[in-house]
Each structure stands twice: as C-alpha cells, then as structure tokens.
Amino acid sequence: MIDWILATTNLSGNDFAILICLTLLAGLVRGFSGFALSAMVMATAVIILPPIELIPMLWWLEMSASILMLKNGWDGADKTMTYGLAIGATIGWPIGLALTVILPVAASKTLALAVIVILAVTLLAKIRMPFLATKTGLYGSGIISGIVSGVAGVGGMVVAVYVLAADAPAKVMRASLVLYLFLSAAISMVVLVAFGMMDTSGIARGLFFAIPTMVGVFLGQQLFTERLAPYYRPFCLILLIGLAMLGLARTQLA
C-alpha cells in the first residue's frame, strides 16, 4: 500500500512524510488566519518539488481548505470587493503560469520565495496604499494576485495587502480571503487544465495531502478568537518570512 502511494505521488518515503507535516502545519495556519496555506507550502516544500509541480497540488489543498471554511467566508466577506479581486485574478492567472513554464526551475524557486518575503514584509510593516481603494486598484490587485498565484502560488497574500489598504476588520479580512481563495481556486482549475499542468502526480499529491491539510484547518479554526485577533497576522507573517528566507538560503546553496 505504501509503495503504491509513493509510486502514485512520485515521492520518496522521507519526502512524503515531510510533506504530511508541512501541509498539516500550513492547514493550521490557514484555519487560524484565513490565508497563507499556499505560501507556507511553497516556502518549505519548494525544496522538495519545483513550483511548477507544487502549483497543481496546491489547488487541491486550497480547495479542501476553502470548502471547510466557506460558510464563515460567505457570511462575513465583503462580496463586492471579493468578486472584483476574483475577476482580476482570472486575467492574471494565465500570465503567471506562462512565466512559470518559461522560467528555469532554480529561477522559479528563487522568485517564488522572494515574492513571499517581499509581500510578508509589506504586510508586517503595515504599509498602506490609499490608491488601492479605487476600482483600478481593486482590479489591478486582482490581476497581480493572479500573476503571483501562477508564478509562486501566493496570490492570497497580494489580496491581503489590498484588504489591509482598505483597513478592514480582522473578521472581514479573514472572511474575504476565504471567499476569494475559494473563487480563485474554482477559476484556476480551468487555467491549470488548459496549460496541461494538472497531471496525474499533481492530482494524486493533492488528494493525499488534502487529508492532513483539512485536519490542520479544523484545528486552526478552533484558535480563531476575538481575544487573539491582534496577533493573528503578525504571527503568520513572521513565520512566513523566516521560512521563506530559510528556503532562499537553501536554494542558493543547493
């Protein structure tokens, strides 16, 4: 049974065990904060698999997490903002995937991790961008999110930058991110199929690692309380920066 699973996912036993731990942790953070699942996995698992192979797997992880969290996301999200971001992301996804296919593996690893660091630092520094609170800013952020999702699988953090500029409450930000990630996952499946990236290995990995991801999401949701709201984002961003910097160092030394 184990040999069949490893053959289906095209992974070694050690890599499979490591990915179980990483997806469980990423699911915990996703359930806790409402975003950062793909960023967490990309920042760590990129050492095992290149971004072009992680992206189809991440689709299944994001969709499984979104299904678990969708009810709260639908009820509490700013739907006008979320729909605008999703429309923009639909335009940006093919551009990002095209760049991922063109870039060499080493370059795409470096770019993916660098994007995570830059976005995380921007959010942690609480840099506000008033021009984003316009229709141009809304759709532009969605397009950039789609491009970044295609290249590095961290479009949710671009959306978080946009929501921060609007100074939304923690509950609204979390719910909007949950709804956005669900919509973008549904839309991106079409793009992944069109680019031939949703292969058998990607599907197998996604289905197997969706299980620890959903366990983590469930546990993370239990930690979401009003009392801890001020600490959600700083904790996740500091963790992301550390993991991404570690990944960058290891990539450069490889």
TrEMBL record:
Record-linked InterPro entries: TM_pro_TauE-like (IPR002781), TSUP (IPR052017)
Topology in the lipid bilayer: Multi-pass membrane protein
Principal location listed in the UniProt entry: membrane
Keywords: Cell membrane, Membrane, Transmembrane, Transmembrane helix, Transport
Sequence intervals crossing the membrane: 16-33, 40-61, 81-103, 110-131, 143-165, 177-197, 203-224, 231-249
Record's GO cellular component terms: plasma membrane
Subcellular location: Cell membrane
Annotated family: Belongs to the 4-toluene sulfonate uptake permease (TSUP) (TC 2.A.102) family.
PANTHER family: MEMBRANE TRANSPORTER PROTEIN, TRANSMEMBRANE PROTEIN YFCA
Protein name listed in UniProt: Probable membrane transporter protein
Provenance organism: Octadecabacter antarcticus 307
Taxonomic lineage from the root: Bacteria, Pseudomonadati, Pseudomonadota, Alphaproteobacteria, Rhodobacterales
